C-alpha cells in the first residue's frame, strides 16, 4: 500500500502488515465474573448495612433502580429525583457537587444519601414514608 497520496509524503512508503484492530466492542466475560457482578439491590444492602432504614427507603423510592432498562438514570414521578436514592436535583445538586458527590452514579448517589441522612435523618424521603415508615426505629434483620 502506498501512503504518499494520503500523507503527502513524496517518496512512496510501503506498509507490509496492517495493524490489528479489535473488531468486537463487547468484552466477553467469564461465568465467574458474571457471578461477581453485584446487583443494585445487593450494593444497597451492603452499603447501608449499618443503616437498615436506608435500605427500605431505596426499595420504596426506586425499587433498587439506579438506571432504567434503557441505561438512562432512573428518575421518579418528580423528574428532578434521580437514582436509587431519588436525590432531588433542585434541592441537592449544588450541595452534592460542592461535596464532590456525583449523584448520577450509584457510588455518588448513595454516598450523598448517607451524608444527607447523617445531617437530616429520614426527613428528605418523608414523601415516601407511608411505604418505609413501618420499619423506622426498628432493628431490621436484613441479610442476617
The main sheet comes to: 2 strands, antiparallel
- Which structural class is indicated by helix and strand composition? mainly alpha
The CATH C-level class name: Mainly Alpha
Please tell me the total number of domains. 1
As an assembly, this protein is: single chain
- Ranges where pLDDT stays below 50 over 5 or more residues in a row are 1-6, 140-144
Going by CATH, the architecture would be Orthogonal Bundle
Beta-strand segment tally: 2
Approximate helicity band: 40-55%
Number of helices: 7
State the order of secondary-structure elements, H for helix, E for strand: HHHHEEHHH
- CATH level-3 fold name: Lysozyme
Query: What order do the strands of the largest sheet run in, or round the barrel if closed?
Result: 1-2
How much of the sequence is in beta strands?
Answer: under 5%
Name the average pLDDT.
83
Amino acid at each position: 500500500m502506498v501512503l504518499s497520496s494520503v500523507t503527502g509524503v513524496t517518496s512512496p512508503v510501503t506498509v507490509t502488515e496492517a495493524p490489528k484492530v479489535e473488531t468486537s466492542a463487547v468484552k466477553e466475560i467469564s461465568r465467574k465474573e458474571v457471578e461477581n457482578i453485584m446487583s443494585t439491590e445487593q450494593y444497597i444492602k451492603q452499603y447501608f448495612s449499618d443503616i437498615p432504614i436506608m435500605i427500605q427507603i431505596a426499595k420504596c423510592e426506586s425499587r433498587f433502580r439506579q438506571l432504567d432498562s434503557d441505561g438512562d438514570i432512573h428518575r421518579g414521578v418528580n423528574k428532578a429525583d434521580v437514582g436509587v436514592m431519588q436525590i432531588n436535583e433542585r434541592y441537592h445538586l449544588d450541595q452534592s457537587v460542592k461535596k464532590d458527590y456525583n449523584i448520577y452514579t450509584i457510588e455518588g448517589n448513595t454516598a450523598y444519601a448517607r451524608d444527607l441522612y447523617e445531617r437530616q435523618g429520614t426527613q428528605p424521603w418523608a414523601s415516601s414514608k407511608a411505604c418505609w415508615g413501618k420499619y423506622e426505629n426498628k432493628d431490621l434483620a436484613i441479610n442476617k
